[in-house]
Amino acid sequence: GALISNDQAHYDDEDYAYCYDCYQNMNEETIHRYSYKPIPVFYGKGDRFFGVELEIDRGGYSHSNADKILSLANRNREHIYIKSDGSLDEGFEIVTHPMTLDYHMKNMDWIGVANRAIELGYLSHKTSTCGLHVHVNRDSFSKDYEEQERAIGNVLYITERFWQELLRFSRR
User: Is the pTM of this model over 0.85?
Assistant: First the structure.
């Protein structure tokens, strides 16, 4: 709400200008904007890393609730961050940094996160708004670009070939 000079402006990911104090407050929010993308921290040893986005809804767009989930998952390290998502009614998206499958299974407290979200009134699989997205690093297919392209083509083929089965499995 105030005029500031260009040399005092701080810009977010969408090139909106803010004064220093507003920019700092915005970046310290528990629930980040949808466009927020921190520098990834890779956890585990191996070639294949998975980043998970779990949408939860119906429990409220609540920074307090987000803090409770963050404090559980990020006890020793920053495993997750939380983002807003316009496709949700009253929730947010829990996003992991890239982790190997072994690290997800042994070091990421998914059961604790899920139970805390349920305790706070959130749902994921029994809504029409939520989804689970899993990202995998391109280099996990091969170090060679053409081999990566072939592997990605195979994934796309399987997705298209078994689309009806995937829809039934995903319940969406």
Answer: no
Which of 39, 52, 149 is closest to 96 using CA atoms? 52
In which residue are the tokens 């500031």 written?
A: 4
Contact 122, 128 (CB under 8 A): no
Question: Tokens at residue 5, please?
Answer: 């000079």
DSSP states of 99-117: B-HHHHHHHS-HHHHHHHH
DSSP percent split of the chain into helix, strand, coil, nearest 5: 40, 20, 45
Per-residue three-class SS string for 85-96? CCCCCCCEEEEE
Tens digit of each residue's pLDDT (9 = 90 or more) over 70-108: 999 998 899 999 999 999 999 999 999 999 999 999 999
What is the Cα–Cα distance from 104 to 107, expressed in whole angstroms? 6
Backbone angles phi, psi at 26, to 5 degrees: -65, -40
Give dist(CA 83, CA 37) in Å, integer: 9
